[in-house]
Design a protein that fits this description.
It is a single chain. The protein is α+β, with helices and mostly antiparallel strands and about 120 residues long. The chain has a single domain, classed as TT1725-like (Alpha-Beta Plaits, 2-Layer Sandwich). It has 3 helices and 4 strands; from the N terminus they run E-H-E-E-H-E-H.
Length: about 120
């Protein structure tokens, strides 16, 4: 499994209220969620009036697909969003192979269930 995460810093020039900040960020968050089915949220600088920080995550079994999805989301925000991107951090996390996970699940969790023959309540 591969998890891709990205954090974007967005400039909100000319803003002087938290309410004025929330509207454009909420618009971006809602559009990214609906178009890409990705997890996305405001993750930092919630009290700063002229800076928005959004984080989003994508999960797949293929690192190139995760990288491609992150790039598509950033391009979409850059192209469709009203706020300029002023910073970006991206990371891909690899969590074992599918075969290793499957073997661990079979030998770990399922072995415990098979060993329990239901007599524990009778004792």
């Amino acid at each position: 499994m591969v998890v891709g995460v990205c954090r974007l810093r967005l400039s909100i020039e000319g803003n002087d209220s938290l309410k004025g900040k929330r509207a454009p960020l909420r618009s971006i968050i809602d559009r990214v969620r609906s178009r890409f089915n990705a997890a996305v949220a405001e993750v930092a600088a919630q009290d700063e009036l002229r800076l928005g920080v959004l984080g989003f995550a994508v999960v797949s079994n293929d690192a190139s697909h995760v990288h491609q999805m992150l790039e598509r989301i950033v391009s979409f925000i850059d192209r469709e969003g009203d706020l300029p991107i002023v910073g970006r951090e991206t990371e891909l996390v690899h969590l074992g192979s599918a075969l290793q996970e499957e073997r661990a699940e079979i030998s770990g969790d399922w072995a415990d269930y098979e060993a329990d023959d239901g007599d524990a309540e009778e004792r």
